[in-house]
Amino acid sequence: MAKDYYEVLGVSKDSTTAEIKKAYKKLAKKYHPDVSSSNNTEEKFKEINEAFSVLGNEKKKNNYDRFGSAEGGFGGQGFGGQSHGFGGFDFNDVEDIFSSFFGGGRKRKSHGPQRGSDLQYNLNVSFEDAALGAEHQVSIEKTTK
Q1: Would you say 3 and 69 are in contact if contact means Cβ atoms under 8 Å apart?
Q2: Interatomic CA distance for residues 38 and 55, integer angstroms
Q3: pLDDT digits (tens, 9 = 90+) for 18-68
């Protein structure tokens, strides 16, 4: 069964970010492995950090409140016991991929126009490399006029 992160931190669902952070700091001090010598200290500390990593992040907190999972509708334990959607594939990564190509509807700071003409190349990238974020080195020859 999934953990209730609000219960882990001892806060209510309508707690502010400041209240969540305060509860996290208090529990982290209490259960830090260097401070406490209790048997389950390390597990409790990890649980507290996991809860705060979700509730302390507004986007993840909203997903958790809506879907019961920080990953959104496809995450959680619903697909073969994986902690992320389909076999470890995090659907937030798909959003990042599309955002980088299409702007994602978010306003980004413009650094102004850059000098020089645009370069266009066709690159063949496998689905696996694109989805998992493989890195390849590409050499481009600079032409001078």
Answers
A1: no
A2: 26
A3: 999 999 999 988 888 888 777 888 888 899 999 999 999 999 998 888 887
All structural domains of the chain, each given as residue ranges with its CATH number in brackets, are 5-93+118-132 (1.10.287.110)
> Is residue 47 within 8 Å of residue 41, measured between CB atoms?
no
How many Å from the N-terminal Cα to the C-terminal Cα in the chain?
A: 65
User: Beta-carbon neighbour count of residue 16 at 10 Å?
Assistant: 9
pTM exceeding 0.70:
no
- Placement of tokens 């809860």 in the chain: 51
